[in-house]
TrEMBL record:
This is Helix-hairpin-helix motif protein. GO terms for cellular component: type II protein secretion system complex. Keywords: Signal. The keyword Isomerase does not apply. Residues 1-25 form the signal peptide. It holds the Pfam family HHH_3. PANTHER family: ENDONUCLEASE/EXONUCLEASE/PHOSPHATASE FAMILY DOMAIN-CONTAINING PROTEIN 1, ENDONUCLEASE_EXONUCLEASE_PHOSPHATASE FAMILY DOMAIN-CONTAINING PROTEIN 1. The keyword Lipoprotein does not apply. GO terms for biological process: protein secretion by the type II secretion system.
Length: 103
């Protein structure tokens, strides 16, 4: 009887500790995995030929900003894009730069 009680307490303790460790481990790895997945899902966008929908795949670019990008084409480089389109701030450019191509 005493052995059953000890095993029951041990099992309960392992369940609590194991659950805490699983929650801790999954929270860190899920964040890293989601960042990697998001970066991997964004296809390169040719800024001078992309459709409205393609531009909207860029982080921080919604329908209004995508329309402004289309309106002021063509762009030679990042500076040209930022000077023609209000709303492409330096911080936004840092987010989209890895995904933008100039043709």
């Amino acid at each position: 009887m005493r052995l059953k009680k000890s095993l029951g307490l041990l099992l309960a303790a392992l369940t609590v500790v194991g659950g805490s460790l699983m929650a801790f481990a999954s929270s860190g790895s899920a964040t890293a995995a989601s960042k990697t997945t998001v970066a991997a899902k964004i296809a390169p966008v040719h800024i001078n030929t992309a459709t409205l929908a393609q531009l909207e795949t860029l982080p921080g670019i919604g329908p209004k900003l995508a329309q402004e990008i289309i309106k002021h084409r063509p762009y030679k480089n990042a500076h040209d894009l930022q000077s023609k389109v209000k709303g492409i701030s330096p911080s936004l450019w840092k987010k989209i730069a890895p995904h933008v191509l100039f043709n």
